[in-house]
Amino acid sequence: MAPRSKVHKLPPELKEWLDNELIARGFGDYVQLAADLKARGAEVSKSALQRYGSPFEQRMAQLKLAGEQARALVDAVPDEEDKLGAAVVRMTQEKIFKLLMELEIDPEDVDVNKLFKNAAEIGKASVTHKRFSMEARAAIEAEARRKLLDEQKAKLEAMGHKSGVTPETKQAIREALGIT
């Protein structure tokens, strides 16, 4: 087995800085990144940075594509039962295992329980979002119905006794439409 990359051995705060810088610099400028890391006390070659940055860039592109596809899917197919949310949690768990294997991350270095807790939080967020979306949709529909009934009530009252509409007929119309 190949030795662990120097990038993976960086302290967490420096690794986080590097990840942010890779994104900010568009996954380029590896020579300057190596110099900046050296100034921060870490000796990592531009080649090691590129070996780390290239798959990272691919994963970022995949995540961006997945996000775009998920938005398109949600827009195209309403998910009243939140089956999509449940699928996201399952897919996240599978991806975590796959990622741990692909990156050859030592399980001792990763808090797997924390990863799954985060996946569960994603599921909870999905449920909360779905509930909020349904409540907002119901409130909008209720408001639209109230406005329509108010308009119909005003039109009914404005009719007066035109066209032979009797007070009894108006009352029957009000009852049929649910106008009080």
Key features?
mainly alpha; 73% helix; 180 residues; 0% strand
What does this structure look like?
- The structure is a single chain.
- The chain has 180 residues and is mainly alpha-helical.
- The chain contains six helices and no strands.
- It has helices spanning 12-24, 30-39, 46-76, 83-102, 112-158, 167-177.
- The longest helix is centred in the last third of the chain and has 47 residues, at 112-158.
- The chain is elongated and about 95 Å long.
Structural class: mainly alpha
Unreliable stretches, pLDDT < 50, 5 or more residues? none
List how many beta strands DSSP finds: 0
Continuous helix count: 6
Distance between the termini: 79 Å
Radius of gyration: 29 Å
Q: Main β-sheet, in a few words?
A: none
Helix share of residues? over 70%
H/E topology pattern: HHHHHH
Overall pLDDT confidence: 81
- Estimate the strand proportion: under 5%
Shape: elongated
